[in-house]
Amino acid sequence: MRKLLTVFLLTLIAIPGSSQFLLRYPVIPKPQTLLALSGDFNLNNEVAFFVEDRSSVSAVKKETQQFRDKVQKYYGLDIRHTKSEGYRSCIYIWLDSASIPPEGYMMFINKNDINIYGSKAGVFYALESLFQLIQPGVNQGEWIIPSCNIIDYPRFSWRGMHLDVARHFFQKDYVKQYLRYMAMYKLNTFHWHLTDDQGWRIEIKKYPLLTSIGGWRDSTLLGHFSEPVDRYDRTRYGGYYTQEEIKEVVRFADSLHITVVPEIEMPGHARALLSAYPELGSGAKQNAAGTWGVFTEVMWPREETFSTLKGILDEVCLLFPGKYIHIGGDECPKEEWSKSEFCQNFMKDNHLKDEDELQSYFIQRIVTYLGTKNKKAIGWDEILEGGLADGAAVMSWRGEDGGIAAAKSHHDVVMTPVSHCYFDYYQSKNPGEPLAIGGYLPLNKVYSYDPVPASLTETEKKHILGVQANLWTEYIPTFAQVEYMIFPRMAALSEVAWSRKEIKNYDEFLSRAIRHMDFYSNMRANYSRAIYDIDATYSPAPNGNGILLSLSTIAPYGDIRYNYGGMVNLGDSAYYEPILITSSRSLRACIFTGEERMGNDFTQSFRYHKAMGKTVTLRKQPAPAYNTGGAFSLVDGITGRTPWTGSEWLGWWGDTLDVVIDLGKVDSIRRVGIYSLHDEGSWIWRPSITNVYTSVDGIHYERMTGLPVILSASGEPDIEVDTRERFPARYVKVIVQGRGIIPMGSPGSGYPAWLFVSEIIVE
Ligand code: ACM
Q: From the alpha carbon of 470, which atom of ligand 1 is closest?
């Protein structure tokens, strides 16, 4: 079999890139080399597996059986095993672990047969690729696999997905489905976040209260954590996995060549544990948390805390055969430790100079204990603070700095920075998105990630084990929403984790990802169609009258069509160039591929007025977080929607809006209106005082007569000054004073109110 290695190296050749090619070979993650060939292999009931070495048949039975089951389920075909070559065409399997990189495979497909070489994992991945290549033949009901030679192996050994089952609980069958999705993308490490403040989800026989008490909470926050008034669903919520269920999931994962890494959080994120065993912390009685965030209640460094954790880890180590146990370590507030006499004495006795060193001491004891059980500890990057025990690995989440520091000090690292790997972030700016924790992580950003920081030396780079995406579930109550958040971003992650960066290409990936949306539909899995979102940008029209609206999309195929009326259809205007808006109107746009509507309609209303597209000078800048469009957004004709998102409104905190609009020439005006926002829950108040001044020369201003009045008709400004007769003006200065301090009895009372303005109209 040595000669295979030579073949392996010789066949490292470039992949052609025509779109025809892409549609024929939509494999994700992209194989390291794929040589497209003409001709097709016909997949039908005459095809059988033939395992070359008869002694290997049972060794790859699980791998071939899974392929067989899927082909049966999705294509209604029966692929059997054969002992003879009586079948017209065979899928030959050659088990070979010696001459092919770990998890790698070679697959040669021609019109007569298919030959697969690899270890068991390699054969499994070959069959995942093979399954993605199945496509309709020329005649109805026929299925083919296009000929090609593939040589493939992973870039990283840790290709992970995390799932938080503490914030919301997903029964074992959902977890198994999640694992199937991972396997489809050749992801091999499942990080199972089993414990947190809101619930303890793993049965520990020695400490039954962990699940009988810690597995349940009395209430769950409704809406977003940042809303100033908390609302709760008072239904008791919880659940846990029995040890039998855990074993079943671990066995199932193993059959998919996935290792399960369980996470037992310590010493913070421990409210659920402390609800069952308060004596492991301050002793104060508490409940599993019903809301999100970081809690001050943490474990204390008592001997019984360590002995309990050891008892828990003894059972965990038996249940999970993998090398790594995740011990959390993130977001551990130190207030309780710094205020407690016990903890302060403990620190003195153990020569720990501060609470960071106490956290480090805590983690080191656990790392050492796991070492005695032949396990390696991995933890979030906070475990570096105060020093980290040899042998522990680091999951870099707050960015890459933790991972870089860890690699430089010879610790292994998994990269999972919030910036590119947090799938609980929004993936679309569409106002109709389901509520998410915040942030914005579109598909292209996931795809662009390179887990190996350039600042590392070649030796340090070897410490980067790989990459992982995390799915925290505070705002993900159902499995359908889990699917929505991971698809198609998991496809992008898989290519980051598997494919060499030299062969990655986002546009070309997108064409394959679109084929995968058919797979998601076939699997009845929910997924995001955010790639069909239409993005709009606005700029002043060149002649100063009105605005130019530019539409764009990242979808690789399709035409944008738009109209100013109802539902967009195929007969509407195709978008070629920026659209000039010089009247009040409402635009709708949608992407079509052929006759098919893709994605959601984009809609935007414009309110035309004399200042639209004119020059605006802001004399006081808004807060950076609420300054998306800058000064121009006050005259872009977009009056701001509610519920509001940051992008349409400029926001000042406890400050004054002070702005001058230059109409470009002396015009005749009579009315100035301001669209402001009133949302007491978000500390945003309508302003208290509004003054408008006008000038013909930009030097001498006069106050506009007429009292500012507050209007409430929808679609109209909520504050206006109307002189009732026209007069000449070129410059309009508007000074709007915020509400000042929020009054007693309202959310945020005692703090300055926000002032939010979306548009200033001049008529
Ligand atoms: C984390 O997101 N707190 C690891």
A: 2
Establish whether residue 330 lines the binding site of ligand 1, counting it when its CB lies within 6 angstroms of any ligand atom. Answer: yes
The neighbouring-strand residues paired with 562 are 573, 589
Residue 23 contacts residue 556 (beta carbons within 8 Å): no
Answer whether 160's CB lies under 8 Å from 40's CB: no
CB of 763 within 6 A of ligand 1: the answer is: no
Question: Strands (DSSP E) along 439-569, which ranges?
Answer: 464-469, 535-540, 547-552, 559-563
Distance 397 CA to ligand 1 centre (A): 7
* Max intra-chain CA distance, the chain: 99
Q: Are 547 and 541 in contact (CB under 8 A)?
A: yes
Q: 3-class SS at 647?
A: helix
Cα angle value 669/670/674 (rounded, 5°):
100
For residue 331, report the distance from its CA to the centre of ligand 1, in Å: 7
Identify whether the C-beta of residue 132 lies closer than 8 Å to the C-beta of residue 151.
no
Query: Mutate which of 397, 415, 419 to test ligand 1's pocket (most atoms within 8 Å of Cβ)?
Result: 397
C-alpha–C-alpha distance, residues 754 and 653, integer Å: 4
C-beta 331 within 6 A of ligand 1: yes
Pair 378, 395: CB distance under 8 Å: yes
How far apart CA 334 and CA 298 sit, in angstroms, is 8
Tokens read off for 339? 């205020």
For the chain, how are helix, strand and coil distributed in percent, rounded to 5? 30, 30, 40
Peptide bond into 488 cis (omega under 30): yes
Q: Write down the residue that tokens 């998994």 correspond to.
A: 414
User: Residue 418 CA: which ligand 1 atom is closest?
Assistant: 2
CA–CA distance, 471 with 734 (Å, rounded to integer): 46
Ligand 1, atom 3, residue with closest C-alpha = 330
Which two tokens mark 374?
């032949």
pLDDT in tens, 540-564: 999 888 999 999 988 877 899 999 9
At 568, which amino acid appears? V
Q: Which helix (H) or strand (E) holds 668?
A: strand 656-676
Ligand 1: centre distance to CA 423 (Å): 12
Q: Is the CB of 418 under 6 A from ligand 1?
A: no
DSSP assigned state of 434: P
Rounded CA separation 394/380 (Å): 6
Q: Is the CB of 380 under 6 A from ligand 1?
A: yes
- Its pTM stands at 0.85
Q: How far apart are CA 189 and CA 323, in angstroms?
A: 11
Structure tokens at 309: 């954790």
pLDDT digits (tens, 9 = 90+) for 230-281: 899 999 999 999 999 999 999 999 999 999 999 999 999 999 999 999 999 9
Q: Any residues with CB less than 8 A from the CB of 134 and at least 6 apart, and which?
A: 43, 71, 75, 143, 144, 145
Residues 6+ apart with CB under 8 A from 507: 556
